[in-house]
Amino acid sequence: MPKSPAPPISDHREGLSPTMTNLFDLPAELLALILAHLGPPDLTHISGANKAAYEAISQRWVWEEAVRHACRSAQVFESTFAPLSALDLVSLKQIAMKPTLLARKLSRGVGISPASEAVLQCDNGIGNFIGVCVVPGGRYILGITHREICIWDLGPPSSFVPSEIAGVTPRCTLELEEGLVNLGPIEAFPHGTDSIRFAVLTHHPRTGGAFNSCVRIRAVTR
């Protein structure tokens, strides 16, 4: 009797366009370099396409780049998560997806409750705060009094524990000789497709070293 024909073998690339199929035929190193330019949601989606994609995207450096991509896209201060070398692969993936997951949550109208609270004080307690600003990312906070600028480092977001940050003292304090300090809003306007937000402290000294104008925290886009 003639043998029955063997059942067709399922192709793991079924449904992929010819371009994508050819892409996965590239050497693993080159494939990883190409896929590293994708955003975190796309990386997560494509990693399930086949074994070649999964192995390429599972490399640690790919997700370090994904974190940087997420910070640039969401205008989050990259040092919020520094040092990246201290994070494992799972943490890198979670951080890279945070802006996307938060945006999805807000789009559904889901409220956000504070995970923790902290009481921030300057070392010498001069005056009351006239302005407080959270640097995008939530790790660094700037507090302004009439005579001081204080900077707090609360640590990476994953380390926020109420019992550990309550009453935390500033990491850096700048005392002013005279004049009123004004904290302007931190915002950066997009320039092309590559932008980054960060704070810059500027002042204008005159003879004798005193300030002849207010001190502002500004943002720059590049």
- Choose one word for the global shape: elongated
- The residue fraction in helices comes out at 25-40%
Q: What is the CATH architecture annotation of the largest domain?
A: Up-down Bundle
Mean pLDDT comes to 68
Please name the CATH topology of the largest domain: Monooxygenase
Secondary-structure element string: HHHHHHEEEHEEE
Number of domains: 2
Percentage beta strand: 5-15%
What's the β-strand tally? 6
Low-confidence stretches: 1-13, 162-167, 194-222
Number of discrete helical segments: 7
CA(first)-CA(last) distance: 75 Å
Strand order, biggest sheet?
1-2-3-4
Q: What can you tell me about this protein's structure?
A:
- The chain is an alpha+beta fold.
- It folds into two domains: 18-107, Up-down Bundle (Monooxygenase); 131-219, no CATH class.
- 30% of the residues lie in helices and 12% in strands.
- It is built from seven helices and six strands.
- The protein has helices spanning 18-23, 28-35, 40-46, 51-57, 60-74, 89-107, 162-165, and strands at 131-134, 140-144, 148-153, 172-175, 199-202, 216-219.
- The strands form two sheets. The chain has a four-stranded antiparallel beta sheet with strand order 1-2-3-4, with no helix packed on it. The protein has a two-stranded antiparallel sheet with strand order 5-6.
- The longest helix has 19 residues, at 89-107.
- The protein is elongated and about 65 Å long.
